[in-house]
Amino acid sequence: MPAPETIAVAMSGGVDSSTVAAMLKSEGHNLVGLTLQLWNQRRLAGRPGMPETSEGRCCSLNDVYDARRVAEHLGIPYYVVNQQDRFEHDVVQPFVQEYLSGRTPVPCTLCNNHLKFAQLLDTARQIGAERIATGHYARNEYDPARDRWILKRPADASKDQTYFLFGLTQAQLSRSLFPLGGYRKPDVRAIAEQRGLALANKPDSQEICFIPGGDYKQFLDAYLADRGEAMPDTSGELVTTTGEVVGHHEGIHNFTVGQRKGLGMATGSPLYVIGINGADKKVVVGSSADLTSKTLRANRLNWISIPRLDGTLRLLVKIRHRHESAWGTLEMSAEDEVAVTFDQPQRAVTPGQAAVFYDGEEVAGGGWIL
Amino acid sequence: MMRRVYMDANATTPLLPEVFEAMQPYFVERFGNASSVHSFGQQARGAVEQARIKVAGLLHCRPAEIVFTSGGTESDNLALFGATKPGDHVIATTIEHHAVLHAAEQLAKCGREVTFVSVDDEGVVDPEDIRRALRPNTRLISVMMANNETGAIQPVEAIAAIAAGAGVQFHTDAVQAAGKVPLRVEKTGCNLLSLSGHKIHAPQGTGVLFVRKDTKVEPLLYGGTHERQRRAGTENLAGIVGLGKAAEIAARSLEDGSTQGIAALRDRLQNEILARVADAGVHSGQVPRVPNTANLWFDHLEGEALVISLDLKGLAVSGGSACASGASEPSHVLTAMGVTTERARASLRFSLSKLTTTEDVDFAIEIVPQAVARLRELSPFYHKDDTFLVNASSVATAQR
To answer: CA angle B345-B347-B351, nearest 5°?
Structure first.
C-alpha cells in the first residue's frame, strides 16, 4: 500500500473550504490546512469610508480563528502563509490601475491565477503536498481522449464559480481538487453540521475581500493616500455617442459600463454609461438601446478544453459573473486576441471583465474584454 | 508517533520537573492570598518572599529591588512608562523586542520624544551612537542585553556607563540573556532590568522588573499596595514560586558549566548545517552571542515554507516574527541590520535549551539540509515547467 497522499486544503475560515477539509479527512487523506494572509484589514482603518474594525471580513482575524478551530477539530496541521506583498502586487495594484484607466476589474480571478493556484500551490508542493483542494464550486477531470484537463460547471448552478477559474493552466488544473463540485450548497451546510463544524451557518462572503464595506471608490482614495500617492486627475467630459458634450464628470474611476446612477444629469429618458475612454478621459453616455453590443474582443486568452482556437467556434459566452451566458461565434482576430459575435446583442459589455466561453458544461477557455 | 524536537527556546521553554513540583502545593493546599493577615496569607507571603530572594540571587541584587509582574512585556512597559513622563526624551534601539519597540512608539504618542538608534550589520549597537543621541532632556535609555532573534549580546555595560555619566536612567531587557549569561546588576550598571519567567523554564505569565533602590517608577496598574506600591494586584502565587525555583536552577546552571554544553551543541548544529547547505550563513556570527541561539539564512527559498516543512517533519523552529494572524513577517531585527527582505524572509532561528540533546541536534542536521534542498528544487517559477503537470497515469492512481 502506498502511503496516503498529502493534500493541502486552502482554508478561508468559511463553510465551503472547512467542509472540504472535513470530507477529505474522512476519506483518510493526510491533510495540511493552509490559509493565505492576503491583506492587512487594519491597514486602511480609520481613513475616510474605511471601517475602524475588520470584523467578519476575509483575512480578518476572525476568519483565521475559524479556520484554525476547524483544523484543530479535525486534528490536522494548520498554518497561515503570509502573501500580503504578492497580493498587493498581483491583485490590488492591477485592480486600482484598471479603475484608473476606465476599466472594471475582476480581482477574484487575478487572485486565483496568481495566489491560490500559483503561490499557494508552490508552498503546498514545497511542504510535501502535491495537490491542493479548495472550496470552489467547480469540477475538473482528466479526459484521456483529448489528453487534457477539463474544467466543468458544478452541480449547483447557483454557486457556479467557473467564471473566476478560467485562467487555470493545464498544470494548475492537474494539481487541483474541487471536492464540492458535485454538491449543492444546502448539502454542504448539512455536511458541515453533521461533521460538527461550528460555522455551518456562517453567512457566505459576497464582497471583494479587501474592500471593507464594499465601496471601491473610497478604497481607491484610501489606498492611494496610504501609499502617499495623489489620486490622478481623470476628470473630463460626459459625451453622447455622437460626440456631443453634455456635461462634466469628476473622474473615470467613478464609472462602470451600464451604470445609471451618479451621472448628475436630469433628462427625459434614463441615461447609461455606454463606454469609458481612458485616453481622453471621456465618459460616453446614451440610452438603454445604446448599451447593447453585438460583438466583443478579448485578449490574454487561456484555453482549457481545447488546445487553441482554429477557425470559428459557436460557444456560450459569459461576460460577467452574474450574466446569463449567450450564444456567440468565436474567431481569432489577432495573436492572442479573440473576436466574439453574439447571436443577440448583449447589454453592458464591460472592458476589464472576463469573457468566459462554455461548451455545454465545459469551460472551453476565456480572456479579458478589451 | 512522530518524533518531535523542540528548538524554539527563545519563544518559550517547558517547565523543569523541579519547577513544576515546587509549584504544585500552591494551587490547592497553600492557596492563600499573600496580603491576608491569617495563617493562609502568612504562608503565601513566605513563599513569595522566598522566591524574591532566589530571583535576587540570580541578579545579584537586593530582594526589595525585585518587582513581580505578569511577564517580560509588562516589565518593559512598566520600565518605559513608569520611569518617564511627558516632555522626557527616551533612547532605544531598532532591534528591541516589540515589548520595548511598540511601547516606545506609544510613549512617543504620549508626550515623550523617542530616538531609535540603529545597529551595525552584525546586529550590535555602538555605545557612541547612544552617546550621540543624548539630549538635555534624555531621561531613559533602553537597550536589550541579548537579542531574541540573533542572540547578539549588546554592550550594555558601556551604555550604562554613558547613561550614568549623563545622569540618565538605564533599562535593559534581559529576557533573552537570563539563564544564558551571568547577570550582575551592579556590574551591568542598570537601573531597571526586565526578566521573563517562561524563557527560563518557569511558567508563562510570570516576570520580573528589577528596580534599583534609588530608582523611582510610577505603577501601570493601580489598586492595592502590592509589590511596594509598584505593581497592584494579588500575587501570582504558584507562578512566583515556580519563577523562584527556576531562577535558583538558572543561577546554578551558570556556574556548573551546563551553558557551555548548550554552546557546544549550538555550534555543532550551525557548523554541520552550513557544511551541508550552499548559499547559507549565520546572522551575527562574528560577534558574541548567547550560547543557545543560531539564526541561519538559506538563500533562494521562503523561510515560511521551510518552517512549515520542518514542523511537518517534527522539528519546531521559528522564522521571522508572528503577526496577529499567525503568519510570519520579515524580522524587523534582521532588516534593521541591513539584511535584504529576501534574505530576512529566508532566515530561521534555532534556539536550544538545557533540555536539547545530542540526538535532537543530529536530527536537525539530518532533516534541515533535506528540506532546504526540496524547497530550492521547487523554485517559484516551476509552473512554467512541464514537470509541474501531473501525468495521466499517476493521476488515475491518485484518484482511486
So the answer is: 140
**Residue in chain A nearest B372 by alpha carbon:** A126
- The answer to whether the Cβ–Cβ distance between B383 and A118 falls below 8 Å is yes
Spell out which chain A residues touch chain B, with contact meaning CB-CB distance below 8 angstroms. Answer: 2, 5, 32, 35, 37, 59, 61, 64, 68, 77, 79-82, 118-119, 121-123, 125-128, 130-131, 142, 144, 147, 169-172, 174-175
Task: Count each helix (H run) and each strand (E run) in chain A, helices first.
Answer: 9, 17
Give the DSSP H or E segment for B171.
strand B169-173
Name the strand (E) or helix (H) holding B392. helix B392-398
Q: Which residues of A touch B378 (CB under 8 A)?
A: 122, 125-126
Burial call A159-171: b when 16+ CB within 10 Å, e when fewer:
bbbbbbbbbbbbb
Q: Do B383 and A169 touch (CB under 8 A)?
A: yes
Handedness of CA A274, A277, A283, A284 (dihedral sign): negative
Answer whether B163's CB lies under 8 Å from B169's CB. yes
Domains of chain B: 5-12+257-384 (3.90.1150.10), 17-254 (3.40.640.10)
pLDDT tens for residues A223-252? 999 999 999 999 999 999 999 999 999 999
Q: Which three cell numbers stand for residue B333?
A: 531585527
Indicate if A83 and A35 belong to the same structural domain: yes
User: Which residues on neighbouring strands pair with residue B222, listed in sequence order?
Assistant: none
Residue B168 identity (one-letter amino acid): V
Least confident span in A299-303, B134-138, B310-314, B328-332:
B328-332
Q: Is residue A241 part of a domain?
A: yes
Backbone angles phi, psi at A247, to 5 degrees: 170, -170
* Residue B323 appears among annotated catalytic residues: yes
Domain residues for the domain of A182 are 6-136+178-217
| Distance in angstroms (rounded) separating the CA atoms of residues A96 and A225 | 12
User: Does A163 map to a domain?
Assistant: no
Q: How many domains does chain A have?
A: 3
- Distance of residue B279 Cα from the nearest chain A Cα, in angstroms: 18
The predicted-structure confidence for A182-231, as pLDDT tens digits, reads as follows: 999 999 999 999 999 988 888 887 778 888 778 899 999 999 999 999 99
Q: What is the pLDDT of residues B161-178, one digit of tens each?
A: 999 999 999 999 999 999
**Residue A346 domain-assigned (yes or no):** yes
Q: Are A249 and A194 in a shared domain?
A: no
Grade residue A51 by pLDDT with cuts at 50, 70 and 90.
confident
The amino acid that residue A89 corresponds to is: H
Do A282 and A323 share a structural domain?
Answer: no
**Burial status of residue A357 (CB atoms within 10 A of its CB: 0-12, 13-18, 19 or more):** buried
**Tell me, what amino acid is at B275?**
A
